[in-house]
Design goal:
CATH class of the largest domain: Alpha Beta
Distance between the termini: 53 Å
Strand order of the largest sheet: 2-5-6-8-15-9-14-13-12-11-10
Order of helices and strands: EHHEEEEHEEHEHEHHEHHEEEHEEH
CATH topology of the largest domain: Aminopeptidase
Number of strands: 15
CATH architecture of the largest domain: 3-Layer(aba) Sandwich
Strand content: 25-35%
Structural class: alpha+beta
Shape: globular
């Protein structure tokens, strides 16, 4: 794929790409860094064996990387957070193959951000065109959680947009956690104070470890918690201890680990990934139950960290209306979809129109339950 000036290369590994060139396109987003994506592949978490075959599009001109698009050939729909199981089932019932499909996303992470990493709109549109061309060899192309600008470009390229909802916390320039609480309605403020007090009364001690303060034993405990949580839900963990340790070695400046201990023994932990623009709550686990500890470790400690560091946004992850009562606000998200089969494309387009109306109604209902004081 290419012309006299540009060329597109399909990459099954990032080992041949200079991290500095790749990261120059990532706009500081930690999940788009070469180190993060390469760790997923090298640890085997996102690989052909696990149904995530990298087919990264890279756009080159005169030996320089001008654009890139994280892209995977998927043999299933696990680890995506935009659910198309019903679409796959409909294909199967009609004797058609839905898999493999092409997916542009951050594996196992419903974080918002660029999916066409490019210096110019021209480069971005070349990546979209290349993805759609490659999609002719699969059933479909899907782009999850792109930016609003990218969503507009994807729609202009013939992809259908699908709406969703996440819950994000916004830092309104708070100086302290108490400043944040003051903005909440009385009942929500009281509930959070009660939850934090009850955790404190159990004797729980909380540590926030960032960067080089996270050592091998901390990663080992966190990995144990993460794995235990999946097993408790009768599921198989997506990620491995090797993957987490690679993050600690290659991008420690983006890691925040919260560990809760009782009687000097760790009992729970949560991993957050952060940059200058946002903190992303990712993984939680525990080896012993303590009431309200999940809220303290996953939400309140992360909010305090954002306030201390001046980080403007905390993406709390997919789903979870319980976040609304803890100061998070509903935010509309987007994904884009192209299906090769014309009849199915037409049917899904009609479905998305109905679904979008439902999402709008849901957002209105959530906003009516906003946790902040009416004059805030």
């Amino acid at each position: 794929m290419g012309d006299d000036a540009f060329s597109i290369r399909i990459l099954e590994t990032l080992s041949g790409v200079q991290p500095s060139q790749w990261n120059a396109l990532s706009d500081g987003h930690p999940f788009l860094r070469h180190e993060f994506l390469h760790a997923l592949h090298e640890s085997g978490c996102a690989s052909e064996r696990t149904g995530w075959l990298p087919q990264y599009l890279s756009l080159w001109r005169d030996g320089c990387l001008e654009g890139a698009m994280p892209l995977y050939l998927k043999s299933h729909s696990r680890g995506e957070y935009v659910f198309d199981w019903a679409w796959a089932d409909a294909y199967h019932r009609h004797g058609l193959e839905y898999y493999p499909k092409l997916l542009s996303a951050i594996p196992f992470s419903p974080v918002c951000g660029s999916r066409m990493l490019a210096k110019t709109r021209e480069a971005r549109m070349r990546l979209v065109a290349a993805a759609l061309e490659l999609g002719e060899q699969a059933s479909s192309v899907h782009v999850l959680f792109p930016t609003d600008t990218e969503a507009t470009d994807l729609s202009a390229s013939g992809m259908m947009l699908r709406r969703g909802v996440q819950f994000h916390w916004k830092n309104e320039g708070y100086a302290t956690f108490e400043d944040f609480l003051i903005r909440l309605s009385h009942d929500k403020r009281k509930k959070i104070r009660q939850e934090r007090r009850k955790v404190n009364e159990t004797g729980i001690r909380i540590q926030r470890l960032a960067g080089q303060d996270i050592h091998e034993e901390h990663w080992a405990f966190f990995s144990r918690c993460y794995t235990n949580t999946y097993h408790a839900h009768h599921a198989t963990p997506y990620l491995t201890k090797d993957f987490f340790e690679r993050l600690g070695q290659t991008m420690p400046e983006n890691m925040l680990l919260v560990i809760a201990s009782l009687d000097n023994k760790p009992v729970a932990s949560a991993l957050n990934v952060f940059g200058e623009k946002a903190l992303y709550g990712r993984y939680w686990g525990c080896i012993g139950y303590v009431p309200n500890l999940h809220f303290e470790v996953c939400y309140y400690q992360a909010i305090e960290f954002c306030i201390e560091r001046g980080i403007p946004l905390f993406e709390g992850g997919a789903q979870g209306e319980h976040k609304l009562a803890r100061g998070f606000a509903p935010v509309q998200t987007c994904s884009a979809h192209w299906l090769k089969h014309p009849a199915f494309a037409d049917a899904i387009e009609k479905f998305l129109e109905r679904e979008s109306a439902g999402v709008e109604t849901y957002l209105d209902e959530l906003n009516e339950r906003a946790p902040f004081k009416k004059d805030a």
